[in-house]
Amino acid sequence: MRHKFIDIPRETLPERTVLERIRDYDEYASRMDDEPIVKQAERCMDCGTPFCHVGDMIGQETIGCPIHNLIPEWNKLVSDQDWYRAYERLMETNNFPEFTGRVCPAPCEGSCTLGISEDPVAIKSIERTIIDRAFEEGWVQPRLVQMRTGRSVAIIGSGPAGLAAADQLNQIGHHVTVYEKADEAGGLLFYGIPNMKLDKDVVRRRIHLLAAEGIRFKTGVNVGVDVTVESLRHKFDAVILATGAQKQRTLGIEGDDATGVEPAMDYLTESTRVLGGKMIDAQYDAAGKDVIVIGGGDTGADCVATAIRQGAKSITQFGKHPEKGMFRAPERPWPLQPDTLSVDYAYAEAIERYEHDPRTYLIRSNRVISQDGRVAGIETERMEKIVKPDGQATFFVVEDSVKTYPADLVLVAIGFERPESELRKLGVEAKQDYVSNVDGVFVAGDARRGQSLIVWAIREGREVAETVDAYLEACQSRLKTSS
Q: Does the structure show a pLDDT above 60 at 1?
């Protein structure tokens, strides 16, 4: 008898056609129907030793799911078409599978045991289908807290780390208030990820659920400006800083202060505001412009997709690394992420719209060319990457490779700086195990570990909640002892 992982090919979420979806900002993918998703779950059933849920680090690499999702268990339940129990099992470890099922880069699939010799199980597609079906069936309802502890926690930041911490602490029975400087809760889930990847009504739906469960949300409050951490510490029994890594990296080259050289996250935020009925600032509108995106990660891809929908004249994306290969490289053995070349949603759209892939590789930006203070182009050189026997990489400039690209809008998507300086502005320094130098103040998520994945943020939120709960219990014990 042949094994199902051989008989059944990998299949992922269905996508709308490119020509249809680039006309709007609706989600480009939808959940799978029951029959094909059951078959995908069956591909998992012959696994001998699963690594998908390990959730550890090898160097800087994530191995498996950081929140230790019980992947083989809910795959088995899906293969048996026991959808409600699959939903229950999924929620045991993941507060927000409707987010991770849409935007997580799925390190679990990179560590799938089947991926050693075959295409890995479509774990992310199964996860999204479970939770989407749960909402459709009405299984996801507010979990009302029966007993309150009388202790209170303020959480600064409503991204995935802050929301996960709020959810955990609220269910324990603590009073939780979440502060968010934007006008909508959700952090980068709301304003940093385009609607076509994560519909904002999906974010609002979860926020409304959390509010119905007793969590208070205060939006439009910038902690450090409108209110101090110290004042919150006096008002609440504990404070969690989950503010994220907020300081975006700059190019650091001549002319990068020209108008039209914009941080990618500012661009994506302003573009999302348009969906809320707000007018877009002309400097963030790509319509009719030659657009250059600097940075080859997911944020850069989101900028490409957004600029297409705004009607960019042309789009070019600079990457500093070589083009990835089609197959797993020897230096990236399983269970590391294979890091192979892929054509995700943004690049499929660009190829259809402009008849070529916008990505260029091994490009160094030398200077921004401007006219009357506005960006007009980027002068670049090509690089060559040499990897030494010890694994260290060195980049060399290719002689006579200077090239100027015309540009009306340059979007800088090269990540965020470490968050230490932002914390110091709030009078806080992060220590180990989520605690800070200020008694009763804790730090979690990107604000603690630097820019990372959504699943790491959720894990940090869950773990800081455990730390805060233990702290509050210890405080209560000391009060009883002293009395």
A: no
Q: Does one domain contain both 76 and 190?
A: no
- Distance between CA 27 and CA 103 in Å, rounded? 11
Residue 215 lies in a domain: yes
Distance separating alpha carbons of residues 444 and 459, to the nearest angstrom: 9
Q: What is the distance between the alpha carbons of residues 130 and 96, in angstroms, rounded to a whole number?
A: 12
Mean of all residue pLDDT scores within the chain: 93
251: tokens are 């190019």
Boundary residue ending a domain (385, 412, 439): 412
Q: Are residues 186 and 98 in the same domain?
A: no
- Give the tokens for residue 124: 């992310």
Question: Cα(144)–Cα(453) distance, rounded to whole angstroms?
Answer: 30
DSSP 401-457: --EEEE-SEEEE-S-B--THHHHHHTT--B-GGGBBSSTTEEE-THHHH-S--HHHH
Total H helices, total E strands in the chain? 18, 16
Q: Coil, helix or strand for 286?
A: coil
Report the Cα–Cα distance between both ends of the chain, in Å, rounded.
71
Q: What percent of the chain has pLDDT over 90?
A: 80
What integer pLDDT is reported at residue 3 of this predicted model?
63
DSSP string, 254-286: BTTTSBTEEEHHHHHHHHHHHHTTPPPPGGG--
Tell me how far apart the alpha carbons of residues 150 and 337 are, in angstroms, rounded to a whole number.
45
Which is more confidently placed, 352 or 246? 352
Question: What percent of the chain is predicted at pLDDT more than 70?
Answer: 98
Instruction: Indicate the number of domains in the chain.
Output: 3
Residues 280 and 360 in one domain: yes
The domain that holds 191 is classified in CATH as: 3.50.50.60
Domain around 38? 4-137
Per-residue model confidence as pLDDT tens digits over 40-62: 999 998 888 899 988 888 877 88
Q: CATH code at 40?
A: 1.10.1060.10
Q: What are phi and psi of 339, to 5 degrees?
A: 55, 50
Dihedral of CA atoms 357, 358, 359, 363 in degrees, nearest 10, equals 140
Question: What is the pTM assigned to this prediction?
Answer: 0.94
Measure the CA–CA gap between 411 and 260, rounded to whole angstroms: 8
State both tokens at 2: 């042949």
